[in-house]
Amino acid sequence: MSKLSKSILGVSLISVLGLAGCTSLGTSDKSSSNNTDKSKAITVVFYPNESAKSFSGSRDALKKSIEKVTGKTVKLQTTTDYNVAIQAIASGKAQVAYMGANGYIQANHISKDVQPFATQSDAEGTLKKASYNSYFMVQQKDANKYQSNGKYSIKNIKGKKMSYVSNSSTSGFLVPTTEVVREFKLKDSESLTQNGKFFSKVLYGGSHQGSAVNLLKGDVDVAAFDDTDLFPYLKVSKGSWNKLGSTFEVKSDAEAPFGNLKGKKVVNIAMMPVQQAPWVYNTKALSKSDQEKITKEFTSQSFADNKEIFSEPNAKTPKLFQKASSKSQLVKVNDKWYAPTHKLVGY
């Protein structure tokens, strides 16, 4: 990971995101003009986070949308491992995927045929501030231990037990380790993944839900996970999703794996912006015609109005995408927009 760490020292993600939001978008020169068999099914693969039962309705609605515009059968592939999804889209066994920016860049590094085509907009319906939150969380009962001069920070996390999501996760690994490297002025991030080095113990939850459970069960002292994947399970008790030092409580109706953790509370001691996750397709495994049809459908107003896919702000039962405003939607995107995350990853 030393290559990654060297590439991010001194880089302000929030400022780079602002610049990236102004990048003009063009069609990828990697799009293939191949004509796949029109009868061939289209496979859509999801990360473990979006494979959760809570998002089954959204996955089914996506399936119907793609079948409607392509006239093809759509197969949904859920996973329990980030790398399964990355390999599936990179190899072409899956033709469409929803994945984090880090995972996309890893898949793109394996095969340039993997290209992004859409991502969730900001509240104004643009890419300018299209980001979500990555957190360092601790249990509420321990929150005071992580204050420095009356403010929450990660200055006291060294020597603690730590949970990440996956080493392929953007908001559950890449961005958090980048923040630790910056805060502690480390040479690289290699020590952050080894037991007994920077942290006394390092665990991986396998998903954002799994990382949160590691913390809530007391298996670790600190955990990294994002907001979007925890909306169905946590509610704000104090503060807000966008405020440092806020308290979050497991909902009374939270489904597995939070069923036995209802009422438990966590506090965010650090919060970092992350580029919105891309929808990608494999341009060699999916015909250009289907690429265009799916892109048009996903970025349409009717798609944004689909209540099984987008939920209104503060909805009781969040869907795959949560609207920040009535203007929230999916917008077209290409590889150039992900330049900041490319820089973090190191290629």
Description:
28% of the residues lie in helices and 22% in strands. The chain is α/β, with parallel strands linked by helices. It folds into two domains: 2-123 and 277-345, D-Maltodextrin-Binding Protein, domain 2, CATH 3.40.190; 131-275, Periplasmic binding protein-like II (D-Maltodextrin-Binding Protein, domain 2, 3-Layer(aba) Sandwich), CATH 3.40.190.10. It has a seven-stranded mixed sheet. It has a six-stranded mixed sheet with strand order 2-1-3-14-4-17, sandwiched between helices. A hairpin with an 8-residue loop joins strand 11 and strand 12 (247-250). The chain is globular and about 55 Å long. Keywords: Signal. This is Phosphate/phosphite/phosphonate ABC transporter substrate-binding protein.
Oligomer status: single chain
Low-confidence stretches: 1-36
Residue-averaged pLDDT, rounded?
Answer: 90
Give the SSE order as H and E letters. HHEHEHEHEEEEEHEHEEEEEHHEEEH
User: What share of the residues does DSSP label as strand, in percent?
Assistant: 15-25%
Query: What would you say the CATH architecture of the largest domain is?
Result: 3-Layer(aba) Sandwich
Number of strands: 17
Signal peptide: 1-20
Organism: Lactiplantibacillus daowaiensis
Family: Belongs to the phosphate/phosphite/phosphonate binding protein family.
Keywords: Signal
